[in-house]
Hints:
The chain is mainly alpha-helical. The chain has helices spanning 19-33, 40-47, 51-57, 61-81, 90-103, 114-120, 127-153, 161-182, 184-200, and strands spanning 2-6, 9-13.
Amino acid sequence: MVKYKSKGFILARPLSFNPTEKLFIAMNVFWLNGFNESSLAMLLDEMSINKYSLYRQFGNKEALFSQALDYYNREVFSPIIEPLRQLNGKTSINAYLENFSAYIEHTQAQYGCLIMNTLSAGNTLPEIHRKQAKDMAKELHCLLKKNFKLAKEKEDLKQEVDACVHFTIMTIQALLHTRKTMGLKVTKSNICFFQKALRDW
Length: 201
């Protein structure tokens, strides 16, 4: 809302766009191109807003990217890993893989993972953005470890917990790369193979 004066009163001018819709568009621009390659001109063009509206609603490019990462966490990443929060051992891990399998059907999955893409950019990004991505990656690591540990305690896991966690994360990264380079069918097949292997761990 923009405030302006009229006859001594401060009134609010309604926005001419939906901020959530514009943030979704910005997230996809960053997801596809990365922070450094997403120019302000590109963002303004894709979001169909002017520079004043962008700064008024979201702040500068760095602030917009931070909000885009939060949006990704809330709308994409968090729902995918939700089964892991139930802490049901292998059952939770398999449900997470089912969510991941559904996620990679979306077009955006061809862009990889915004978290991993951000981490891969390393020191070229501001620390605040790297921390946001690290925190999300850390949550996945911790939840996987808790569930593998529970499976071990239930004698439902023959392998070592840390090895299972690291291999699972490595596999997820490989599957995202496969989705980008070899397509959906091959990726889905590989997910099924991994799920079968998980049952025998």
